[in-house]
Design brief:
The protein is α/β, with parallel strands linked by helices. The protein folds into three domains: 82 residues, Rossmann fold, CATH 3.40.50.720; 194 residues, UDP-N-acetylmuramoyl-L-alanine:D-glutamate ligase (3-Layer(aba) Sandwich), CATH 3.40.1190.10; 153 residues, Protein-Tyrosine Phosphatase, Chain A (Alpha-Beta Complex). It has a ten-stranded mixed sheet, sandwiched between helices. Strands 15-16-20-17-18-19 form a six-stranded mixed sheet, sandwiched between helices. Strands 1-2 form a two-stranded parallel sheet. A hairpin with a 4-residue loop joins strand 6 and strand 7. The two termini are 44 Å apart. 45% of the residues are buried.
Protein backbone atom coordinates (compact mmCIF):
# COMPACT_ATOMS: atom_id res chain seq x y z
CA UNK A 1 0.00 0.00 0.00
CA UNK A 2 2.79 2.45 0.87
CA UNK A 3 4.63 1.72 -2.39
CA UNK A 4 1.48 2.39 -4.40
CA UNK A 5 0.82 5.60 -2.46
CA UNK A 6 4.32 6.91 -3.09
CA UNK A 7 4.37 6.10 -6.81
CA UNK A 8 0.93 7.62 -7.41
CA UNK A 9 1.94 10.76 -5.51
CA UNK A 10 5.04 11.09 -7.68
CA UNK A 11 2.84 10.68 -10.75
CA UNK A 12 0.80 13.70 -9.72
CA UNK A 13 -2.15 12.21 -7.85
CA UNK A 14 -3.43 13.76 -4.62
CA UNK A 15 -2.91 10.94 -2.11
CA UNK A 16 -4.10 10.63 1.49
CA UNK A 17 -3.95 7.68 3.86
CA UNK A 18 -3.94 6.66 7.49
CA UNK A 19 -1.76 4.58 9.76
CA UNK A 20 -1.95 4.55 13.56
CA UNK A 21 1.62 3.23 13.82
CA UNK A 22 4.61 5.53 13.45
CA UNK A 23 6.80 3.91 10.81
CA UNK A 24 9.80 5.23 8.82
CA UNK A 25 7.93 4.75 5.54
CA UNK A 26 5.41 7.40 6.64
CA UNK A 27 8.16 10.02 6.73
CA UNK A 28 9.07 9.14 3.15
CA UNK A 29 5.44 9.37 2.06
CA UNK A 30 5.01 12.79 3.67
CA UNK A 31 8.13 13.98 1.83
CA UNK A 32 6.49 12.81 -1.40
CA UNK A 33 3.41 14.92 -0.66
CA UNK A 34 1.17 12.22 0.81
CA UNK A 35 -1.19 13.41 3.53
CA UNK A 36 -0.98 10.90 6.41
CA UNK A 37 -3.56 10.73 9.19
CA UNK A 38 -2.46 9.19 12.49
CA UNK A 39 -5.91 7.87 13.37
CA UNK A 40 -8.41 5.72 11.48
CA UNK A 41 -11.85 7.23 11.98
CA UNK A 42 -14.85 8.43 9.98
CA UNK A 43 -13.53 11.99 10.45
CA UNK A 44 -10.64 11.11 8.12
CA UNK A 45 -13.02 10.58 5.20
CA UNK A 46 -14.82 13.84 6.03
CA UNK A 47 -11.49 15.72 6.10
CA UNK A 48 -10.41 14.33 2.74
CA UNK A 49 -13.76 15.08 1.10
CA UNK A 50 -13.86 18.63 2.43
CA UNK A 51 -10.52 19.44 0.84
CA UNK A 52 -11.47 18.62 -2.75
CA UNK A 53 -14.26 19.12 -5.25
CA UNK A 54 -13.47 15.71 -6.78
CA UNK A 55 -15.00 12.62 -5.25
CA UNK A 56 -12.12 10.59 -3.75
CA UNK A 57 -11.46 6.98 -4.66
CA UNK A 58 -10.85 4.78 -1.62
CA UNK A 59 -8.29 1.98 -1.96
CA UNK A 60 -8.27 -0.89 0.53
CA UNK A 61 -6.23 -4.03 1.03
CA UNK A 62 -7.51 -7.46 2.04
CA UNK A 63 -6.31 -6.69 5.57
CA UNK A 64 -8.94 -3.96 6.04
CA UNK A 65 -12.04 -5.40 7.76
CA UNK A 66 -15.58 -4.25 7.03
CA UNK A 67 -15.71 -2.86 10.55
CA UNK A 68 -13.02 -0.28 9.77
CA UNK A 69 -14.58 3.15 10.49
CA UNK A 70 -13.04 4.78 7.41
CA UNK A 71 -14.36 2.05 5.14
CA UNK A 72 -17.81 2.34 6.71
CA UNK A 73 -17.78 6.11 6.26
CA UNK A 74 -16.68 5.75 2.64
CA UNK A 75 -19.54 3.33 1.93
CA UNK A 76 -22.05 5.63 3.63
CA UNK A 77 -20.81 8.53 1.51
CA UNK A 78 -21.18 6.46 -1.66
CA UNK A 79 -17.50 6.77 -2.59
CA UNK A 80 -15.91 4.47 -5.14
CA UNK A 81 -14.02 1.71 -3.33
CA UNK A 82 -11.48 -0.49 -5.06
CA UNK A 83 -9.00 -3.12 -3.95
CA UNK A 84 -5.26 -2.54 -3.80
CA UNK A 85 -4.84 -5.09 -6.58
CA UNK A 86 -7.01 -3.00 -8.92
CA UNK A 87 -4.61 -0.07 -8.60
CA UNK A 88 -1.58 -2.32 -8.98
CA UNK A 89 -3.18 -3.97 -12.03
CA UNK A 90 -3.75 -0.56 -13.62
CA UNK A 91 -0.05 0.24 -13.23
CA UNK A 92 1.16 -3.19 -14.38
CA UNK A 93 -1.14 -3.25 -17.39
CA UNK A 94 -0.28 0.31 -18.50
CA UNK A 95 3.37 -0.34 -19.43
CA UNK A 96 5.75 -3.25 -20.13
CA UNK A 97 5.96 -5.06 -16.80
CA UNK A 98 7.67 -7.95 -15.05
CA UNK A 99 5.44 -9.55 -12.40
CA UNK A 100 7.02 -12.03 -9.98
CA UNK A 101 4.76 -14.63 -8.37
CA UNK A 102 5.20 -17.86 -6.44
CA UNK A 103 5.00 -19.31 -2.96
CA UNK A 104 8.54 -18.37 -1.87
CA UNK A 105 11.20 -15.92 -2.99
CA UNK A 106 9.03 -13.44 -4.85
CA UNK A 107 9.99 -10.43 -2.71
CA UNK A 108 13.69 -11.25 -3.06
CA UNK A 109 13.46 -12.05 -6.78
CA UNK A 110 11.49 -8.91 -7.63
CA UNK A 111 13.94 -6.88 -5.52
CA UNK A 112 16.89 -8.38 -7.40
CA UNK A 113 15.32 -7.76 -10.81
CA UNK A 114 14.57 -4.13 -9.98
CA UNK A 115 18.05 -3.64 -8.51
CA UNK A 116 19.77 -5.15 -11.56
CA UNK A 117 17.70 -3.02 -13.94
CA UNK A 118 18.54 0.13 -11.98
CA UNK A 119 22.24 -0.78 -11.84
CA UNK A 120 22.30 -1.26 -15.61
CA UNK A 121 20.73 2.16 -16.28
CA UNK A 122 17.23 0.93 -17.13
CA UNK A 123 15.57 3.08 -14.42
CA UNK A 124 12.58 0.83 -13.59
CA UNK A 125 9.47 1.59 -11.64
CA UNK A 126 9.23 -0.91 -8.77
CA UNK A 127 6.43 -2.02 -6.45
CA UNK A 128 7.80 -4.56 -3.98
CA UNK A 129 6.59 -6.18 -0.76
CA UNK A 130 9.83 -5.41 1.10
CA UNK A 131 12.35 -2.60 1.37
CA UNK A 132 14.78 -2.65 -1.57
CA UNK A 133 18.23 -1.69 -0.21
CA UNK A 134 19.26 0.07 -3.42
CA UNK A 135 16.17 2.32 -3.20
CA UNK A 136 15.78 2.48 0.61
CA UNK A 137 12.09 1.98 -0.10
CA UNK A 138 9.56 -0.63 -1.24
CA UNK A 139 8.51 1.56 -4.17
CA UNK A 140 10.31 3.48 -6.89
CA UNK A 141 8.98 5.79 -9.58
CA UNK A 142 11.34 5.30 -12.53
CA UNK A 143 11.47 6.92 -15.94
CA UNK A 144 12.46 3.75 -17.78
CA UNK A 145 10.39 1.43 -19.95
CA UNK A 146 9.83 -1.33 -17.40
CA UNK A 147 7.81 -1.78 -14.22
CA UNK A 148 8.72 -4.57 -11.78
CA UNK A 149 6.05 -5.78 -9.37
CA UNK A 150 5.68 -8.47 -6.76
CA UNK A 151 2.48 -10.38 -7.51
CA UNK A 152 1.06 -11.65 -4.22
CA UNK A 153 -1.03 -14.82 -4.45
CA UNK A 154 -2.42 -14.75 -0.89
CA UNK A 155 -5.91 -13.54 -1.88
CA UNK A 156 -5.98 -14.62 -5.55
CA UNK A 157 -6.14 -11.05 -6.85
CA UNK A 158 -3.02 -11.44 -9.02
CA UNK A 159 -5.22 -12.88 -11.80
CA UNK A 160 -5.96 -9.23 -12.71
CA UNK A 161 -2.37 -8.59 -13.77
CA UNK A 162 -1.42 -8.64 -17.46
CA UNK A 163 2.36 -8.57 -17.35
CA UNK A 164 4.69 -8.65 -20.34
CA UNK A 165 6.82 -11.19 -18.45
CA UNK A 166 5.53 -13.38 -15.64
CA UNK A 167 8.08 -15.02 -13.34
CA UNK A 168 7.09 -18.10 -11.28
CA UNK A 169 9.55 -18.92 -8.49
CA UNK A 170 7.89 -22.11 -7.15
CA UNK A 171 4.55 -23.42 -5.92
CA UNK A 172 3.68 -25.05 -2.62
CA UNK A 173 0.48 -24.97 -0.60
CA UNK A 174 0.24 -21.88 1.59
CA UNK A 175 -2.41 -19.35 2.61
CA UNK A 176 -4.71 -22.13 3.67
CA UNK A 177 -7.19 -19.51 4.86
CA UNK A 178 -7.84 -18.81 1.15
CA UNK A 179 -6.84 -21.99 -0.72
CA UNK A 180 -8.43 -25.30 0.39
CA UNK A 181 -5.74 -27.34 -1.36
CA UNK A 182 -2.80 -27.17 -3.77
CA UNK A 183 -5.07 -27.66 -6.81
CA UNK A 184 -6.90 -24.44 -6.00
CA UNK A 185 -3.61 -22.55 -5.79
CA UNK A 186 -2.39 -24.08 -9.06
CA UNK A 187 -5.62 -23.05 -10.81
CA UNK A 188 -5.22 -19.44 -9.67
CA UNK A 189 -1.58 -19.32 -10.74
CA UNK A 190 -2.50 -20.80 -14.13
CA UNK A 191 -4.96 -17.94 -14.63
CA UNK A 192 -2.18 -15.49 -13.75
CA UNK A 193 0.28 -17.13 -16.14
CA UNK A 194 -2.20 -17.10 -19.03
CA UNK A 195 -2.51 -13.34 -18.60
CA UNK A 196 1.24 -12.89 -19.12
CA UNK A 197 2.66 -12.43 -22.61
CA UNK A 198 5.63 -14.66 -21.70
CA UNK A 199 6.35 -16.92 -18.76
CA UNK A 200 9.70 -17.63 -17.07
CA UNK A 201 9.52 -20.47 -14.54
CA UNK A 202 11.67 -22.54 -12.20
CA UNK A 203 12.31 -25.97 -13.70
CA UNK A 204 13.57 -27.28 -10.36
CA UNK A 205 10.01 -27.06 -8.98
CA UNK A 206 8.10 -30.25 -9.83
CA UNK A 207 4.70 -28.58 -9.42
CA UNK A 208 5.58 -25.93 -12.02
CA UNK A 209 6.94 -28.50 -14.47
CA UNK A 210 3.79 -30.60 -14.14
CA UNK A 211 1.20 -27.84 -14.43
CA UNK A 212 2.69 -24.99 -16.47
CA UNK A 213 3.88 -24.47 -20.05
CA UNK A 214 6.50 -21.75 -19.78
CA UNK A 215 8.31 -20.27 -22.76
CA UNK A 216 11.49 -20.07 -20.67
CA UNK A 217 12.79 -22.14 -17.75
CA UNK A 218 15.66 -21.65 -15.31
CA UNK A 219 17.49 -24.15 -13.12
CA UNK A 220 20.28 -24.37 -10.55
CA UNK A 221 20.49 -28.16 -10.94
CA UNK A 222 21.00 -28.93 -14.64
CA UNK A 223 21.73 -26.60 -17.59
CA UNK A 224 20.42 -29.07 -20.16
CA UNK A 225 16.90 -28.27 -21.29
CA UNK A 226 16.79 -24.94 -19.44
CA UNK A 227 16.94 -21.55 -21.12
CA UNK A 228 19.03 -20.29 -18.20
CA UNK A 229 20.95 -22.08 -15.46
CA UNK A 230 23.45 -21.30 -12.72
CA UNK A 231 25.48 -24.26 -11.48
CA UNK A 232 27.37 -23.71 -8.25
CA UNK A 233 31.14 -24.11 -8.30
CA UNK A 234 31.49 -23.33 -4.59
CA UNK A 235 28.96 -22.58 -1.84
CA UNK A 236 30.03 -20.55 1.19
CA UNK A 237 28.40 -18.84 4.09
CA UNK A 238 28.93 -15.49 2.40
CA UNK A 239 27.87 -16.38 -1.13
CA UNK A 240 28.12 -18.68 -4.11
CA UNK A 241 30.31 -18.84 -7.22
CA UNK A 242 28.35 -20.26 -10.15
CA UNK A 243 28.74 -20.87 -13.87
CA UNK A 244 25.89 -19.26 -15.80
CA UNK A 245 24.43 -21.05 -18.81
CA UNK A 246 22.18 -19.87 -21.62
CA UNK A 247 20.58 -22.58 -23.75
CA UNK A 248 23.09 -25.11 -22.44
CA UNK A 249 26.25 -23.07 -23.09
CA UNK A 250 28.31 -21.49 -20.32
CA UNK A 251 28.58 -17.72 -20.86
CA UNK A 252 30.49 -16.77 -17.72
CA UNK A 253 30.70 -16.94 -13.94
CA UNK A 254 28.53 -15.15 -11.39
CA UNK A 255 29.83 -14.16 -7.96
CA UNK A 256 26.62 -14.14 -5.91
CA UNK A 257 27.05 -12.31 -2.58
CA UNK A 258 23.99 -14.03 -1.04
CA UNK A 259 24.34 -17.44 0.62
CA UNK A 260 22.13 -20.46 0.10
CA UNK A 261 20.71 -22.47 -2.79
CA UNK A 262 17.41 -20.58 -2.59
CA UNK A 263 19.21 -17.27 -3.16
CA UNK A 264 21.16 -18.73 -6.06
CA UNK A 265 17.81 -19.66 -7.63
CA UNK A 266 16.42 -16.17 -6.97
CA UNK A 267 19.47 -14.53 -8.57
CA UNK A 268 19.29 -16.90 -11.56
CA UNK A 269 15.67 -15.91 -12.11
CA UNK A 270 16.53 -12.23 -11.85
CA UNK A 271 19.42 -12.45 -14.31
CA UNK A 272 17.27 -14.51 -16.69
CA UNK A 273 14.45 -11.95 -16.57
CA UNK A 274 16.87 -9.13 -17.32
CA UNK A 275 18.44 -11.08 -20.18
CA UNK A 276 14.98 -11.61 -21.68
CA UNK A 277 14.54 -7.83 -21.53
CA UNK A 278 17.77 -7.29 -23.48
CA UNK A 279 20.27 -6.42 -20.73
CA UNK A 280 23.78 -7.63 -21.60
CA UNK A 281 25.30 -10.44 -19.54
CA UNK A 282 28.51 -8.43 -19.02
CA UNK A 283 26.54 -5.63 -17.35
CA UNK A 284 24.60 -8.08 -15.21
CA UNK A 285 27.72 -9.98 -14.22
CA UNK A 286 29.14 -6.80 -12.68
CA UNK A 287 25.85 -5.77 -11.06
CA UNK A 288 25.23 -9.18 -9.45
CA UNK A 289 28.39 -8.85 -7.34
CA UNK A 290 26.86 -5.88 -5.50
CA UNK A 291 23.39 -7.33 -4.84
CA UNK A 292 21.74 -7.10 -1.43
CA UNK A 293 18.66 -8.93 -0.17
CA UNK A 294 15.52 -6.95 0.71
CA UNK A 295 14.67 -5.98 4.26
CA UNK A 296 13.70 -8.81 6.64
CA UNK A 297 15.50 -11.40 4.47
CA UNK A 298 18.36 -12.58 6.69
CA UNK A 299 18.60 -9.00 7.86
CA UNK A 300 21.48 -8.46 10.32
CA UNK A 301 20.16 -6.05 12.96
CA UNK A 302 23.14 -5.80 15.29
CA UNK A 303 25.21 -7.52 17.96
CA UNK A 304 23.90 -7.81 21.53
CA UNK A 305 26.45 -8.99 24.09
CA UNK A 306 28.36 -10.88 21.38
CA UNK A 307 25.18 -12.46 20.01
CA UNK A 308 24.49 -11.58 16.37
CA UNK A 309 20.79 -10.90 15.86
CA UNK A 310 19.29 -11.56 12.42
CA UNK A 311 15.68 -10.91 11.39
CA UNK A 312 13.95 -12.96 8.70
CA UNK A 313 10.39 -13.06 7.31
CA UNK A 314 10.34 -16.89 7.01
CA UNK A 315 6.88 -18.12 8.06
CA UNK A 316 6.39 -21.31 6.01
CA UNK A 317 8.23 -24.60 6.71
CA UNK A 318 10.15 -24.44 3.42
CA UNK A 319 11.24 -20.87 4.15
CA UNK A 320 12.27 -21.72 7.70
CA UNK A 321 14.23 -24.74 6.44
CA UNK A 322 16.02 -22.69 3.76
CA UNK A 323 16.88 -19.90 6.18
CA UNK A 324 18.20 -22.30 8.80
CA UNK A 325 20.22 -24.17 6.13
CA UNK A 326 21.84 -20.86 5.17
CA UNK A 327 22.61 -20.10 8.82
CA UNK A 328 24.11 -23.55 9.36
CA UNK A 329 26.26 -23.08 6.24
CA UNK A 330 27.68 -19.95 7.84
CA UNK A 331 28.59 -21.95 10.95
CA UNK A 332 30.05 -24.94 9.09
CA UNK A 333 31.88 -23.13 6.27
CA UNK A 334 33.70 -20.63 8.46
CA UNK A 335 32.48 -17.75 6.27
CA UNK A 336 29.56 -15.40 6.69
CA UNK A 337 28.53 -11.81 5.98
CA UNK A 338 28.19 -11.22 9.73
CA UNK A 339 30.79 -9.21 11.70
CA UNK A 340 31.90 -12.31 13.64
CA UNK A 341 31.93 -15.98 12.77
CA UNK A 342 28.81 -17.59 14.33
CA UNK A 343 29.36 -20.72 16.40
CA UNK A 344 25.79 -21.84 17.01
CA UNK A 345 22.25 -21.14 15.70
CA UNK A 346 19.47 -20.18 18.12
CA UNK A 347 16.17 -20.18 16.23
CA UNK A 348 13.58 -17.77 17.62
CA UNK A 349 10.34 -18.49 15.78
CA UNK A 350 6.88 -16.97 15.89
CA UNK A 351 4.14 -19.13 14.30
CA UNK A 352 1.94 -17.03 12.01
CA UNK A 353 -1.81 -17.73 11.82
CA UNK A 354 -3.63 -20.63 13.46
CA UNK A 355 -4.62 -22.06 10.06
CA UNK A 356 -1.04 -22.15 8.73
CA UNK A 357 0.33 -23.58 11.99
CA UNK A 358 -2.33 -26.31 12.03
CA UNK A 359 -1.71 -27.25 8.39
CA UNK A 360 2.08 -27.34 8.67
CA UNK A 361 2.74 -28.24 12.30
CA UNK A 362 4.89 -31.26 11.44
CA UNK A 363 6.69 -29.34 8.69
CA UNK A 364 7.58 -26.53 11.09
CA UNK A 365 8.78 -29.06 13.64
CA UNK A 366 10.99 -30.77 11.07
CA UNK A 367 12.50 -27.48 9.88
CA UNK A 368 13.15 -26.08 13.36
CA UNK A 369 14.72 -29.32 14.60
CA UNK A 370 17.87 -28.44 12.61
CA UNK A 371 18.68 -25.54 14.97
CA UNK A 372 21.00 -25.86 17.96
CA UNK A 373 18.29 -24.46 20.25
CA UNK A 374 14.77 -23.10 19.77
CA UNK A 375 12.77 -20.38 21.52
CA UNK A 376 9.13 -20.00 20.44
CA UNK A 377 7.19 -16.74 20.63
CA UNK A 378 3.43 -16.68 21.20
CA UNK A 379 1.49 -17.50 18.04
CA UNK A 380 0.63 -14.40 15.96
CA UNK A 381 -3.03 -14.78 15.00
CA UNK A 382 -3.20 -12.13 12.24
CA UNK A 383 -6.85 -11.72 13.22
CA UNK A 384 -7.76 -15.41 13.01
CA UNK A 385 -9.88 -17.14 15.66
CA UNK A 386 -8.01 -19.73 17.73
CA UNK A 387 -8.04 -23.40 16.72
CA UNK A 388 -8.25 -25.91 19.58
CA UNK A 389 -4.93 -27.61 20.23
CA UNK A 390 -2.91 -25.24 18.03
CA UNK A 391 -0.35 -23.08 19.83
CA UNK A 392 3.36 -22.48 20.21
CA UNK A 393 3.35 -25.08 22.99
CA UNK A 394 1.88 -27.65 20.58
CA UNK A 395 4.66 -26.85 18.12
CA UNK A 396 7.24 -27.28 20.89
CA UNK A 397 5.83 -30.73 21.64
CA UNK A 398 6.06 -31.67 17.95
CA UNK A 399 9.70 -30.52 17.79
CA UNK A 400 10.55 -32.41 20.98
CA UNK A 401 9.13 -35.64 19.55
CA UNK A 402 11.48 -35.32 16.56
CA UNK A 403 14.51 -34.11 18.51
CA UNK A 404 14.20 -35.17 22.18
CA UNK A 405 17.54 -33.64 23.17
CA UNK A 406 17.03 -30.24 21.52
CA UNK A 407 16.74 -27.33 24.00
CA UNK A 408 13.30 -25.72 23.49
CA UNK A 409 11.58 -22.93 25.40
CA UNK A 410 8.15 -21.34 24.90
CA UNK A 411 7.46 -17.72 25.85
CA UNK A 412 4.13 -16.47 27.14
CA UNK A 413 4.71 -12.91 25.89
CA UNK A 414 7.39 -10.71 24.36
CA UNK A 415 8.91 -9.77 27.72
CA UNK A 416 9.45 -13.43 28.57
CA UNK A 417 10.68 -14.09 25.02
CA UNK A 418 13.37 -11.43 25.39
CA UNK A 419 14.40 -12.84 28.75
CA UNK A 420 14.56 -16.39 27.37
CA UNK A 421 16.72 -15.33 24.44
CA UNK A 422 19.02 -13.40 26.78
CA UNK A 423 19.35 -16.32 29.22
CA UNK A 424 19.57 -19.27 26.81
CA UNK A 425 21.89 -17.72 24.21
CA UNK A 426 25.68 -17.57 24.42
CA UNK A 427 28.43 -15.38 23.05
CA UNK A 428 29.03 -16.29 19.42
CA UNK A 429 25.44 -17.34 18.80
CA UNK A 430 23.55 -16.40 15.68
CA UNK A 431 20.13 -15.44 17.08
CA UNK A 432 17.81 -15.96 14.12
CA UNK A 433 14.36 -14.40 14.62
CA UNK A 434 11.84 -15.72 12.09
CA UNK A 435 8.18 -14.97 11.41
CA UNK A 436 5.75 -12.65 9.65
CA UNK A 437 4.21 -11.15 12.78
CA UNK A 438 5.83 -8.80 15.30
CA UNK A 439 8.87 -10.97 16.06
CA UNK A 440 10.96 -8.37 14.18
CA UNK A 441 10.92 -6.25 17.35
CA UNK A 442 13.27 -8.68 19.14
CA UNK A 443 16.39 -6.65 18.36
CA UNK A 444 14.88 -3.47 19.80
CA UNK A 445 13.80 -5.28 22.96
CA UNK A 446 17.27 -6.78 23.45
CA UNK A 447 18.79 -3.35 22.87
CA UNK A 448 16.62 -1.97 25.67
CA UNK A 449 18.07 -4.62 27.97
CA UNK A 450 21.53 -3.40 26.97
CA UNK A 451 20.59 0.12 27.99
CA UNK A 452 19.29 -1.18 31.33
CA UNK A 453 22.58 -2.91 32.07
CA UNK A 454 22.56 -6.49 33.30
CA UNK A 455 18.99 -6.29 34.61
CA UNK A 456 16.86 -8.98 32.98
CA UNK A 457 13.11 -9.52 33.40
CA UNK A 458 12.28 -12.35 35.76
CA UNK A 459 10.91 -15.56 34.31
CA UNK A 460 7.82 -17.21 35.70
CA UNK A 461 8.55 -20.33 37.68
Amino acid sequence: MSALAGILAQRGFDISGSDPKQQPVLTQLRQQGVRVFAQQSAATIDAIRSGTSTSPVVVISSAVPESNPELQAARTAGLKICHRSDVLAALINAQPSIAVAGSHGKTTTSTLIATLLAATHNDPTAIIGGVVPAFASNGRHGQGRLLVAEADESDGSLVKFKAQLGVLTNLELDHTDHYPDLNALVATMQRFSKGCSRLLANRDCKVLVEHFAAQHWWSIEDPQGASFAAIARSSRGDGTSADFYEDGSCVGTLEVPLAGAHNLSNVTAAVAACRLEGVSFAELQQAVAALKAPGRRFDYRGTWQQRMVVDDYAHHPSEVAATLAMARLMVSSGTSPLPEQPQRVLAVFQPHRYSRTAEFLDGFAQALSSADAVVLAPLYSAGEAPIAGISSAALADAIQRLAPGLPIAVAADHQELTALVARTSSAGDLVLAMGAGDINGLWERLSQLQEQGSSLPLLAA
